[in-house]
Amino acid sequence: MPSKVPVFAALAANAAIAVTKFLAAGVTSSAAMLSEAVHSTVDTLNSVLLLMGLNLSQRPPSEEHPFGHGKELFFWSLIVAVLIFALGGGVSVYQGVMHLLHPKPLEKPMWSFIVLGAAALFEGISFMVALRQFLRGLNGRPFWDALHASKDPSNYTVLAEDGAALCGIVIAALGIGFSVALHTPLYDALASVLIGLLLAAIAVALIRESRGLLIGEGLRPETARAIRAFARQQPSVRSVGAVLSMYIGPDEVLVTMQLSFESGTETDRAAAVIESLEKQVRERYPVIRRLFIDVEQARQPIER
Hints:
Shape: elongated
Distance between the termini: 22 Å
Radius of gyration: 25 Å
Number of strands: 5
Strand content: 5-15%
Order of helices and strands: HHHHHHHHEEEHEE
Structural class: alpha+beta
């Protein structure tokens, strides 16, 4: 079951940071600081939506949703990604462009650096909480492979948001610093645009992942091949059809496959083979919660 700890940590950090950034933006007239304030506000809203998605996804199966509500989390993670793109990225780019067209001198820039330093501390804590939660599930896999294979939006979305937030803080600090040192608001405005483009890039990656899960992404091809190999190794199995799968929740996969037994195989023998195969598959891949095996002769699915 996905953990809510990283989401709560991100919610607390982003809510506090958003308020301080807005105050600093008002005092300093910094476009980059205003973009960072919008960024933190969007992240706060996103944490609320992820928590709602987590709660809705854990509802039990019903007559209308016999496989449960696990995909609720995928839907709300898509909404989060769209908000990052539209509000976070769009508003930041807009603010940067407006300040390029109508430059405003920075006032009391020291407040910006103080707020950015505090924001880096809190975002760093939130990022470490999410990273620690993610590392627990690596199971010996390389970090980037595990990140790509993860189907838990409540974790990788927080990681992406906090990582983008830390990068945004660095960009904002550099933009404000150059503007102060060179006595021009140009770099502050450019920093705002860069923050917007960064958020848009993160959002596109999250949208792509959420889209794949919503339209029926299944197991990785190498996993499907391994399952077919298990099936072919069973005695009396003549042929194995395609392994069809779909994620119906962050840690739940539906798998169907077809077996064809050799002519003359007794029913009890076939049942024993199916039971052995199911045991091997579920021991190797605990994420497969629902396994349906269709025996060709019977032409009826057998669920174990």
